[in-house]
Automatic annotation (TrEMBL):
It comes from the Eukaryota. The keyword Transferase applies. It holds the Pfam family Methyltransf_11. It comes from Collichthys lucidus. This is Putative methyltransferase. Residues 46-137 form the Methyltransferase type domain. InterPro entries: Diverse_substrate_MTase, Methyltransf_11, SAM-dependent_MTases_sf. GO terms for molecular function: S-adenosylmethionine-dependent methyltransferase activity. Keywords: Methyltransferase, Transferase. GO terms for biological process: methylation. SUPFAM superfamilies: S-adenosyl-L-methionine-dependent methyltransferases (SSF53335).
Length: 198
């Protein structure tokens, strides 16, 4: 089942303002993996469940064309308002029915979105549209992590964060369970591609 959240205009604007973006280092790891698999040039990247486009814009300087897709018209509207790069377009569609030809996509990403999709159907759709040497990157972050900061007591910092996570737990979607990392591990194990990295 697909979960439809984050669709209102106010939420989409807040998403643009506050949503965590992947780091440049993480994007570079994905690009290095893609280059190892298929080489350059990088033609088409598709960012599925793009929300308001934070991750989509990170791909623009590396690809001839980048398309962000999202189920929410409000998210796509905010993404369009913030897209400055000429090679980015946005499409409203569900993740499980993408408007791309078979074997046409070099890189498909889902940045903090895969856990909301009908995962088996999305993985089939990704397989359909990816080029034989294309790459699927499922990116996410977790709140159950150890934090550190220079000149700060790590123990105190992590104790405060644990209290914060406990306070957030009642508001967490039951669909995600206690941690979305298990959903990603399950997907990773189910993907039968010969070359994959965690």
């Amino acid at each position: 089942m697909t979960y439809r959240l984050f669709e209102g205009k106010e939420h989409a604007s807040s998403y643009w303002k506050y949503r965590i973006s992947p780091s440049d280092q993480l994007i570079q790891l994905v690009l290095d993996f893609l280059e190892k698999q298929k080489g350059r040039p990088f033609e088409l990247a598709v960012d599925v469940g793009c929300g308001s486009g934070q991750g989509t814009v990170l791909l623009a300087k590396h690809f001839t064309s980048v398309v962000g897709t999202d189920v929410s018209p409000a998210q796509v509207e905010v993404a369009l308002q913030n897209a400055k790069e000429q090679n980015i377009t946005y499409r409203q569609c569900v993740a499980e029915e993408l408007p791309f030809s078979d074997s046409s996509v070099d890189l498909m990403t889902a940045m903090s979105a895969f856990h909301w999709f009908d995962r088996p159907r999305f993985l089939q759709e990704a397989h359909r549209v990816l080029k034989p040497s294309g790459c699927l990157a499922l990116l996410n972050y977790t709140i159950d992590m150890e934090l550190s900061y220079p000149d700060c007591c790590s123990h105190s910092l992590n104790e405060i964060c644990k209290e914060f996570y406990v306070a957030l737990q009642p508001y967490r979607s039951p669909h995600l369970g206690r941690s979305s990392i298990e959903l990603y591990r399950e997907a990773y194990e189910s993907i039968s591609y010969p070359d994959k990295e965690w």
